[in-house]
Amino acid sequence: MSRREIREQIFKILFQTEFYGNQEWEEHLQLSLKGLGELREKDSDYITAKVRDIYQHLSEIDELINSRADRWKTGRMAKAELAIIRLAVYEMKYEEEIPVSVAINEAVELAKIYGTDQGAGFVNGILAKLA
Fold first, then answer.
1. What is the pLDDT of residues 58-114, one digit of tens each?
2. What is the DSSP letter of 70?
3. Quick count: other Cβ atoms within 10 Å of Cβ 127?
4. Which strand (E) or helix (H) includes residue 101?
5. Residue 30 CA, distance from chain mean position
6. Closest CA to 46 of 82, 18, 80, 5
7. Minimal CA–CA distance to 93: which of 103, 107, 78, 79?
8. What whole-number distance in Å separates Cα of residue 37 and Cα of residue 53?
9. Which listed site, 18, 87, 100, 126, has its alpha carbon 20 to 30 Å from 79?
């Protein structure tokens, strides 16, 4: 799986867990991985570790987002855009090997596919304030 495909799968897991609550995200993670079919162990381990780490830092990530999102706190954001922003903020703040510009660009590309009509601009605007 390419980095982009892995990022997309992580986004989908984050998005889907928004509908199940924080208590069930670990179970949903495992179900999502099974739904992907045959994954290389390396890819599965990477996705699992990254989703777990995002959830460990979720309160910090949301605090960062809320500190920069004028009139659009995480509770008001569309679920797809929120999952995309959370993933990008995690990459920007906790993954040194991913350049900030790459995290932002990949987030905008995901928002073009999965977000609302104005989603890409919204995601770009929030992330630009955090860069």
1. 999 999 999 988 888 888 899 999 999 999 999 999 999 999 999 999 999 999 999
2. T
3. 24
4. helix 100-114
5. 17
6. 5
7. 103
8. 23
9. 100
